[in-house]
Amino acid sequence: MSKRAGRKWVKGVEPSTPFAEAARAVLAPRLEAVAELLPLACGHANDDVEHVHRLRVATRRAGAALAAFGAGIRRSEAEKARRRLRRIRRAAGKARECDVMADAFRARLATAEGAERAAFEHLLTQLIHRRAEAQAELEAIGRRYRPAKLARRNGRLLDAIRARGPKGARTFAGAARLAIPRVQRKLSLAAANDLSDLTHLHELRILGKRLRYELEIFAPCLEAGLRDDIYARVEAMQERLGSINDRYDMTLTLDSELAELGSAEGEAAAGLRALLAVERAELERERAAFVAWWHSADAGSLFTDIDTAIGADPVEPVRSEESEALGPQLDAALADAGSRLLTLEEGATNGRAHDAANGSGRASDVPPGGPARATGSAGGRGKGGRS
Fold it and tell me: Which of 103, 129, 166, 225 could pair covalently with 71 via S-S, beta carbons 3.0-4.6 A apart?
């Protein structure tokens, strides 16, 4: 894969770069990465399973770029691209999930004994069949989107970028001030749901990924030191949620295998039941720890720091009902985070009043200051990190 296509941080654009120019500079290499990785994931997954992982990450990065600049792209082409990326991402996701789980099973099989060993041997046997089915689905997607066809469609998408961006986003920095707070609000609203429901945590995880990828896109609008600090904290949040997701996937797999075995006895069945009890307990422990962190001052200041970095109005994390049961310490932490947010709001209001008095308003799209791991579950995410 070309160095340009595999790049994480956006380069070659400034906060003042016009919207259309910035959109092309961001989208082109991300679309190129998907086009280059799809044939590798389809034809060479046995040589290196990381091809599938990289493809999945590439589709997420391209999807985040499309969301960030979609308002300035002809709707019909943007929607076609969204569907195309979603199909590729889902196919790669099924294969990737099998690879992650297989790594976890093999690592634990190495030290397992008795019923536990029989359980992991059974799980690995079943997983081989699931992985083969997932690879067949991915290869079907590869045949549907052959390189030349994908290149033509990506070209049409780039041609559909309008000369001027939407109101409030005429420049790269303006786009950042629209896109990032939008993801933060969705993330905050998702966190206001009942976080004992793991489907809500999954939604939170997906939105956290989107925030992370948009921070990569708009990195030139952030001061380097602040960018690295914010990104590391978002990444740590993703590690927490990724570990919970791995645990949840494991419990679903174990439930499914036990349902298949029915009332069967033997070492494998006994091992699966014991393993399921352990995984459920660990899942609940990790879930509770994440909820406590989400309602801490650290999480509250994360949003504040992002807003400050891009020059946007503050987005305050929403408090879910579950925080009521977390005790006075969390209440104090929330009050502390809230006071910092209020201070920022007052500062922003005073700044706008000063600008208005001097006739300057907020015409400039350049933000103040100029351009600018937590432990996972047993299996981890391989050498490529979380996807």
Answer: 166
